[in-house]
Amino acid sequence: MRHDHLITSKQLSRGDIETVLDYAAELDADPSTVADRHAGTLLGLLFFEPSTRTKMSFETAMKRLGGDVVDMGSIESSSVKKGETLADTVRVIEGYTDALVLRHPKQGAATMASEFVDVPLVNAGDGAGHHPTQTMLDLYTIRENAGLDDLTIGIMGDLKYGRTVHSLAYALTNFDTRQHFISPESLQLPREVVYDLHQRQDGTGIREHDSLEEVLPSLDVLYVTRIQRERFPDENEYQKVAGEYQIDADTLEAASDELTVMHPLPRVDEIAPEIDETDYAAYFQQAHNGVPVRMALLDLLLSDDKRIGGDDDE
Ligand code: ASP
């Protein structure tokens, strides 16, 4: 069976991931082969939360495939302001477009919305839930820099609310990886995610820590995340953890010379700018990879000869 919608990385098998990454690499090398492939195709952008990279790279990707986008714009200027439900909004916009990209502050919003539409719907972030297309570009960047098998990765910061972390952690269980999760106790991975990760991968591949120090020398990749201030029910709780887990050149003295430092961006103060010009930094490359990866995903979702296999019922 093939995927009609892309909601979580749990849907994706190793074969699916490799198909997308291999195709993205082809498009990265020569995007001209698909310049007119989706001429006349319209992608609907529904962003109920701020976005820079995700939205602009989807738009760039669709245009590089020969298509165009229709953007709902800010919620302030849309009918959402008048109280329209998400189910109604997506049903209306699917009538104008060939596929939808949805970002929403509520976890589960993409799953719900996908039940109301027939065109492919891509989850571009649902609250603290998932962000599967970010994961694909993260995997692409990891593969370019460190390889995806026999990988030791540290994932650090806000593991509770960070949707990019959840999606990446699930996807990595398809590969031979050791995942170290580093966070303050209050921002640990949700217990159900830990449970799922153990079910999907031999438990020895998953470890939780409160300090980077003990694992840093063993890491191939360090994936740093922002504390998701907007998701804290209580600002005081945010203030207690703000500014923890920052890295700078001194921190990385204990790291391997081969370490790759990643971040889904935007960063606040987690990575000192002095790291930007070092060989460790891969976060801008990671953001650039969003275009070929989203081109590959859109083409696969929009084409009749879809090449992403697997169950689509998760
Ligand atoms: N841009 C990512 C997201 O939308 C990461 C972040 O906002 O911290 O989840």
Automatic annotation (TrEMBL):
Query: Where does the record place the Aspartate/ornithine carbamoyltransferase Asp/Orn-binding domain?
Result: 150-300
Q: Which keywords appear in this protein's UniProt record, sorted alphabetically?
A: Pyrimidine biosynthesis, Transferase
Q: Which InterPro entries match?
A: Asp/Orn_carbamoyltranf_P-bd, Asp/Orn_carbamoylTrfase, Asp/Orn_carbamoylTrfase_sf, Asp_carbamoyltransf, Asp_carbamoyltransf_Asp/Orn-bd
A single GO BP:
'de novo' pyrimidine nucleobase biosynthetic process
Concerning PANTHER family, the annotation shows: ASPARTATE CARBAMOYLTRANSFERASE, ORNITHINE CARBAMOYLTRANSFERASE, MITOCHONDRIAL
Return the similarity comment: Belongs to the aspartate/ornithine carbamoyltransferase superfamily. ATCase family.
State the oligomer form and interacting partners.
Heterooligomer of catalytic and regulatory chains.
Q: What does this protein do?
A: Catalyzes the condensation of carbamoyl phosphate and aspartate to form carbamoyl aspartate and inorganic phosphate, the committed step in the de novo pyrimidine nucleotide biosynthesis pathway.
The name of this protein is Aspartate carbamoyltransferase
Coding gene?
pyrB
